[in-house]
Amino acid sequence: MHVSELKGAGLGFRRELIPALQARIPPVIDFFEIAPENWLDLGGATGKQLRGFSERYPFICHGLSLSLGGPTPLDEMLLRRIKPFMRQHQVPLYSEHLSYCSDDGQLYDLLPIPFTEEAVKYVAARIRRTQDILEQRIAVENASYYVAAPISEMSESAFIRAVLEEADCLLHLDVNNIYVNSVNFGFDPVEFLHGLPGERIAYIHTAGHHQEAADLIIDTHGAAVIDPVWALLDETYQTFGAFPTLLERDFNIPPLAELVPEVARIAELQHKWSKRHVQRA
Fold this sequence. Notes:
Elements: E1 9-12, H1 18-23, E2 31-34, H2 44-54, E3 59-62, H3 76-88, E4 94-97, E5 100-102, E6 106-111, H4 117-134, E7 139-141, H5 156-167, E8 170-174, H6 175-185, H7 189-194, E9 201-207, E10 210-213, E11 216-218, H8 227-240, E12 245-248, H9 256-280
Parallel strand pairs: 1-2, 1-12, 2-3, 3-4, 4-7, 7-8, 8-9, 9-12
Antiparallel strand pairs: 5-6, 10-11
């Protein structure tokens, strides 16, 4: 399967959801996403369970720990383990965060990269090396953050565009992260969205978050998607088209039946804008 064949609405694949998914996969779910670090080298019953799903549904790998902007050497060993895992499960795409999460060890948070020309070249070189090892283009995700990088020579959107062009990679667009950062740093999320290169979008994330204060949102993926984020997703489809979109839910995971309406809402928005784009054409 090629990434261009990926369609529809997806859901993060979590162990808590496996029993319900084994009983019945709701027809609104078109694909799943997993963090490969959590599934590498798993055999036995768990490995067979995953294979049973990946034989029937497309999966995307969304990395957690490659630390594309980090100061330590790129973890090529991890990539060499991910590559056969993707082949085994016929995964068409690997994505990672445009951030860093390591120094001498894992920092267990996603930290912002300085928006500088030097950082563009540094990160793009690491992305190109990742693509060389995996033998395919990857997608990088615009990250949420809470403290601005100490040095900035350009805007975040300009930095993202420059990295994508320098590395010749794809964009994993997270609309919730745009909204989170717009509240935390006081900018217009729609204007930010319009500044991104739609032709490089591979797929989209939407998620919930925690409102700590009027001007501080924590990107938890632990709650339902709120109306302003749904509105931003709607704007995204209107602007760029109805790209494959996944609902992230990493904490406070409710029963599958409570997640399905959110996945269905993604599908409804996709259908609305797919029809309108066809009519315009």
